[in-house]
Amino acid sequence: EEAPLEEAFEQTIARNDRIEPRDWMPDDYRKTLIRQIAQHAHSEIIGMQPEGNWITRAPSLRRKAVLLAKVQDEAGHGLYLYSATETLGVSRDDLTRRLLSGTQKYSSIFNYPTLSYADVGTIGWLVDGAAICNQVPLCRTSFGPYGRAMIRVCKEESFHQRQGYELLMTMMRGTDEQRAMVQESVDRFWWPALMMFGPPDGDSPNTERSMTWGIKRHTNDELRQKFVDMTVPQAKALGVTLPDPELRWNDERQAHDFGSPDWEEFWQVVKGNGPCNAQRLAHRQRAYDEGAWVREAAMAYADRQVDENV
Ligand code: FAQ
């Protein structure tokens, strides 16, 4: 029974074509997708918190409006991604519970605090910059709903990256204190941003199979390199120093050499022991509990529509 189905799946992957929700797919392909897309969705939603922290303290009405729009976009990205995950046969409520119980992850980057307003700019520049590097190739991922969500997400992330860069550029043209604030922020976020791409290829259990299935199109180290190469000229234009003494252009490789992030710190953060893990999850749990009445009201309304239609 399954042989022709499996063959059709393999052929679709080999043609670099899309697998769609109603197509047959191996269980492990489905599981890997649920893991990655749900983790991505959770990252968007948890990722609202670090920047949300500065909405009430943005320095002007314009900056506040921009930041509000950006944080709302992240909520939208989370919803596209939860919808894409639901096409694999798992409910959003179930996914939220898995996040809250710690059985599903979200990106390590959102477990670091936002200590100064410059962090809003740095997150836009480096975190959204890293996200774009990682997500542009995911527009060609083999699962249709995920790839289509990524196209729209990437357009919005480009705007986010530019707003961060523009914010930092404005501060760099300001006072010495503002410049120092930007540098201090970049010093804190540089290494965590490099960790967003995941462990080095040699310690990445999922990469090989995800590449065979066309879920991932590049390895973690390939994308990290691309990000460094893209960011160095931007740092120069901005006038900030990236906090890595080993960072230099390698003429032979036509790429930058750079130092290694603290992978011990990375695994600690992934395991839940980062500076803000507990705070982020507690906040999400509170929002979930406080939203219970909305879910109940929506369900009651939906039930009544069904009753009235019989
Ligand atoms: N954080 O074998 P691999 C955004 C886990 S951007 C936490 O290499 P894989 C936009 C990994 O899950 C951020 N955990 O795994 C935004 C696995 O554990 P598991 C979201 C990590 O999947 C900006 C284990 O380590 N973007 O939100 C991390 O092949 C500003 C072994 O790793 C995405 O999720 C990490 N950094 O490669 C929002 C992109 N790295 O699951 C708001 C889509 C690895 O087996 C504000 N995801 N782990 O228990 C991907 O491209 C991949 O999943 C990787 C990891 C590259 C993240």
UniProtKB/TrEMBL annotation:
<protein>
    <submittedName>
        <fullName>1,2-phenylacetyl-CoA epoxidase subunit A</fullName>
        <ecNumber>1.14.13.149</ecNumber>
    </submittedName>
</protein>
<dbReference type="InterPro" id="IPR007814">
    <property type="entry name" value="PaaA_PaaC"/>
</dbReference>
<dbReference type="GO" id="GO:0005829">
    <property type="term" value="C:cytosol"/>
</dbReference>
<dbReference type="GO" id="GO:0010124">
    <property type="term" value="P:phenylacetate catabolic process"/>
</dbReference>
<dbReference type="InterPro" id="IPR011881">
    <property type="entry name" value="PaaA"/>
</dbReference>
<keyword id="KW-0560">Oxidoreductase</keyword>
<dbReference type="InterPro" id="IPR052703">
    <property type="entry name" value="Aromatic_CoA_ox/epox"/>
</dbReference>
<dbReference type="GO" id="GO:0097266">
    <property type="term" value="F:phenylacetyl-CoA 1,2-epoxidase activity"/>
</dbReference>
<dbReference type="Pfam" id="PF05138">
    <property type="entry name" value="PaaA_PaaC"/>
</dbReference>
<dbReference type="InterPro" id="IPR009078">
    <property type="entry name" value="Ferritin-like_SF"/>
</dbReference>
<dbReference type="InterPro" id="IPR012347">
    <property type="entry name" value="Ferritin-like"/>
</dbReference>
